[in-house]
């Protein structure tokens, strides 16, 4: 069993925290799972938490990672994040400049907290199932061996296997692109195109995810692992996925805004899709499924036309 750590849950919303303390639950996000009795809850400043901690795990969406890392930067504490995606392109970003496209977590960390030991904890893991103690396997990715080991020692246990991987580029590309592909499979299933079509999307999606990863410096075998194939299969087929739900809602005729509003939780693929395509184009990488998702999210094509565009592509060899 993992060691009995002292764990403090920090939240920026003091009212939400007070409610969690009162009810012993997180009614908004995991209403059916009582919080562990040993869990401390704190709304003190993040700096105060960082000063006292041996390890910080950040569970904000990608949109909050930069700001959170900036607050943690002065403290010599190792940090891992759970968020999966590319940072949304910032308004006013200078085309051609380094801020012209959204970044992965480790690229953000290199900009705002280069002295910290950082990593990503990723892999197929619906939060609800983890909270229920159902068997789950994760990957702890970092170029820093001590941090990988710290994450394994802190979290590996009877219900949670944690594998270490030094390929943080591959692990982060896998976590980001699978969300975009899950929108595509949600759409495919929402249109009732069949199981053959879904399997084709997953397989060809894995191919385009791997192409982007390799162009960004990842290793191919990472995409056969938990953060590649593993998380793609889970998110593309599991009905708990918010990204998959966005695709299903679009197929049912909802607008993107209606789909996003009805979730009440972040669907990172909606924000990452444009960056995925933008970075792929800059690198000369073909990502036709992601391109279709972007055209759909931007309202340039209707759901059925997106499918027709994919099926209408010319024949290709399966491998390059
Ligand atoms: N939910 C899952 O099953 C799951 C599993 C693995 C990874 N993830 C990833 O974790 C990230 C968060 O997902 P989620 O499901 O918790 O999203 P969510 O939308 O359900 O909740 C996000 C929480 O982060 C808070 N938040 C937003 N910006 C913040 C900031 N700057 N500082 C502090 N808190 C902030 C919000 O108030 C909210 O409480 C996403 O990148 C997601 O891809 C989610
Ligand atoms: O609900 P989603 O689509 O954000 O997926 C959650 C996790 O990333 C699955 O591993």
Residue stretches low in confidence (pLDDT < 50, at least 5 long) are none
Please give the share of residues in helix: 40-55%
Overall 3D form: globular
What number of structural domains do the residues give? 2
Hetero groups bound?
Answer: nicotinamide-adenine-dinucleotide, SN-glycerol-3-phosphate
CATH arch. level architecture of the largest domain: 3-Layer(aba) Sandwich
CATH topology of the largest domain: Rossmann fold
The profile of the biggest β sheet is:
5 strands, mixed
Structural class: alpha/beta
Mean pLDDT: 93
Output the radius of gyration: 20 Å
Number of helices: 14
- Strands in their spatial order, largest beta sheet: 3-4-5-6-7
Could you give the distance between the termini?
Answer: 45 Å
Report the CATH C-level class of the largest domain. Answer: Alpha Beta
SSE topology:
Elements: E1 8-10, H1 14-23, E2 40-42, H2 46-52, E3 56-58, H3 65-72, E4 79-81, H4 105-112, E5 118-122, H5 127-131, E6 136-141, H6 145-155, E7 160-165, H7 168-190, H8 195-215, H9 226-237, H10 242-251, H11 256-263, H12 268-283, H13 288-297, H14 303-311
Parallel strand pairs: 1-2, 3-4, 4-5, 6-7
Antiparallel strand pairs: 5-6
């Amino acid at each position: 069993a993992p060691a009995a750590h002292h764990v403090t849950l920090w939240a920026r919303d003091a009212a939400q925290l007070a409610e969690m303390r009162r009810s012993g639950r997180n009614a908004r996000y995991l209403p059916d799972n009582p919080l562990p009795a040993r869990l401390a809850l704190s709304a003190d400043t993040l700096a105060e938490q960082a000063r006292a901690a041996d390890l910080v795990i950040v569970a904000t969406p990608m949109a909050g990672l930069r700001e959170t890392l900036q607050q943690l930067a002065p403290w010599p504490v190792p940090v891992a994040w759970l968020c999966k995606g590319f940072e949304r392109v910032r308004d006013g970003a200078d085309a051609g400049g380094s801020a012209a496209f959204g970044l992965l977590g480790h690229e953000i960390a290199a900009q705002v907290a280069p002295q910290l030991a950082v990593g990503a904890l990723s892999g197929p893991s619906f939060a609800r199932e983890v909270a229920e103690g159902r068997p789950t396997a994760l990957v702890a990715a970092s170029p820093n061996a001590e941090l990988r080991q710290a994450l394994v020692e802190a979290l590996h246990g009877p219900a949670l296997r944690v594998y270490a991987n030094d390929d943080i580029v591959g692990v982060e590309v896998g976590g980001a692109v699978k969300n975009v592909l899950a929108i595509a499979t949600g759409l495919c299933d929402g249109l009732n195109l069949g199981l053959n079509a879904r399997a084709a999307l997953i397989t060809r999606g894995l191919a385009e995810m791997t192409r982007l990863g390799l162009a960004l410096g990842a290793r191919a075998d990472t995409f056969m692992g938990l953060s590649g194939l593993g998380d793609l299969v889970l998110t593309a087929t599991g009905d708990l996925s918010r990204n998959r739900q966005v695709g299903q809602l679009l197929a049912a005729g909802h607008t993107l805004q209606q789909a996003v509003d009805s979730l009440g939780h972040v669907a990172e693929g909606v924000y990452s899709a444009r960056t995925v395509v933008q970075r792929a184009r800059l690198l000369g990488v073909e990502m036709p499924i992601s391109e279709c998702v972007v055209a759909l999210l931007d309202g340039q094509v209707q759901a059925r036309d997106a499918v027709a565009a994919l099926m209408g592509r010319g024949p290709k060899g399966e491998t390059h």
